[in-house]
Design goal:
The chain is α/β, with parallel strands linked by helices and 388 residues long. The chain folds into three domains: 113 residues, Rossmann fold; 150 residues, NAD(P)-binding Rossmann-like Domain (Rossmann fold, 3-Layer(aba) Sandwich), CATH 3.40.50; 80 residues, Alpha-Beta Plaits (2-Layer Sandwich), CATH 3.30.70. It contains 13 helices and 16 strands. Strands 8-7-6-9-10-11-12 form a seven-stranded parallel β-sheet, with helices on both faces. Strands 2-1-3-4-5 form a five-stranded parallel β-sheet. It has a four-stranded antiparallel β-sheet with strand order 14-15-13-16, with helices on one face. Strand 10, helix 10 and strand 11 form a beta-alpha-beta unit. It is elongated, with a radius of gyration of 25 Å. The model has no long low-confidence stretch (mean pLDDT 95).
């Protein structure tokens, strides 16, 4: 019986996929897996029983990845599960960046009580809220992951000329990208050519504050910037200065901060990108399925701290799953220890990711507690699991 703990409210459409071998408990201290959305976990004591954490969403800034790796806890996220929800809000953001719809709505509401004069006042005042169409304009999409590709394709279908930049674009992702998208080979190409720029990349030490005074200076005058990725990608002070000087025409962000609020040209949105019932259901289902596959089969898909390793189960075989450090000669040591215990290796897979690695053996024969103890005693091994 596996114990699951939810740190946030998780869609029952997802948790309902756990079967009879699972219980969802209120306590963390006995949990085998945790489902989380935005709850902060950095100061939590993680129990020895914890094998997996699944983030129902893409960002994992709220999870202590280094501590999890050291304790042999696999951390999953759900890339692409909320992609359509974010894409739709980005398209809304393109229009909000162009036409002063939000300001216009605010102003119209101030006319309450003017009676029959409202129509005339609207006609008289509407010129203050005009803006350009997006059709025929150029859009730069920085980051071509699950969301960026959907945004690029949708914007191209709306008549925009789209430039995409992603030095880490995968082959699978490239297959989903329209052939009409221009491949930008450097950020400066995006900055020089695009009327609109939208960010769809993670915040890292390299990308934090990437939209700063230096980058803004390279952009077209009157550029309109959208940020539905992470607030820290944009230097707020530099962006505000660009708005005040006219270098930037507008900034639409799903990550407002205090400095941005009340600033002319900023449209702050309260982090609504993935806030749809469909997105929450999709993320929950994907998180649950990945946790189940890891707990029941030892397979790792969409982990942010461990390598992806999946192998189909064979009837009658026992599976040994080993999380270990990525150091030379480990596989031969493991296989030697398993063989010495009188167990025959039928199938195996092993992959590494940075300083960590994961190895699966499917074996025939009796896997004794002594054999497991022998493996666990090896210096390079972090955690051993046996799945029968």
């Amino acid at each position: 019986m596996y114990q699951i703990h939810c740190l946030n409210k998780i869609s029952p459409i997802g948790t309902g996929r756990f079967g009879e071998n699972y219980t969802i408990g209120a306590e963390l201290n006995q949990a085998n897996a945790v489902l989380v959305r935005s709850a902060a976990m950095h100061d939590m004591d993680l129990p020895e029983s914890l094998l997996a954490i699944a983030r129902a969403g893409a960002g994992v800034n709220n999870i202590p990845l280094d501590k999890c790796s050291e304790q042999g806890i696999v951390v999953f996220n759900t890339p692409g599960a909320n992609a359509n929800a974010v894409k739709e809000l980005v398209l809304c953001g393109l229009l909000l960046a162009s036409r002063k719809v939000a300001k216009g709505i605010e102003w119209v509401n101030t006319l309450k009580g003017q009676g029959d004069e409202v129509g005339k006042l609207v006609e008289k005042g509407k010129s203050a809220f005009v803006g350009p169409e997006i059709c025929g304009k150029s859009l730069g999409v920085i980051g071509l992951g699950a969301i960026g590709i959907l945004v690029a394709n949708a914007a191209e279908a709306l008549g925009m000329t789209v430039y995409g930049y992603d030095p880490y674009l995968s082959v699978d992702a490239a297959w989903g990208l329209s052939s009409n998208i221009h491949h930008a080979r450097a950020l400066d190409e995006i900055y020089a050519n695009c009327d609109y720029i939208t960010l769809h990349l993670p915040q890292t030490a390299d990308t934090k504050g990437m939209i700063n005074a230096e980058a803004l200076e390279k952009m077209k005058d009157g550029v309109r910037i959208l940020n539905f990725a992470r607030g820290g990608l944009v230097n707020s002070a530099d962006l505000i200065a660009a708005l005040e000087s006219g270098k930037a025409a507008s900034y639409v962000t799903d990550f407002p901060d205090d400095a941005l609020l009340g600033t002319e040209g900023v449209t702050p949105i309260p982090h609504l990108g993935a806030s749809t019932p469909e997105s929450e259901d999709n993320c929950a289902c994907m998180a649950v399925d990945q946790v189940k596959d890891y707990l029941e089969n030892g397979n790792i898909r969409n982990s942010v701290n461990m390598p992806a390793v999946s192998m189909a189960r064979a009837p009658g075989l026992t599976r040994i799953c080993i999380l270990h450090r990525n150091v030379p000669n480990t596989i031969s040591q493991f296989s030697g220890a398993v063989g010495a215990a009188g167990v025959n290796i039928e199938n195996m897979q092993s992959m590494s990711r940075g300083e960590y690695a994961y190895t699966i053996f499917d074996v025939s024969g009796d896997v004794s507690s002594g054999a497991v103890a022998g493996l666990q005693a090896m210096e390079s091994i972090i955690r051993v699991r046996v799945i029968r």
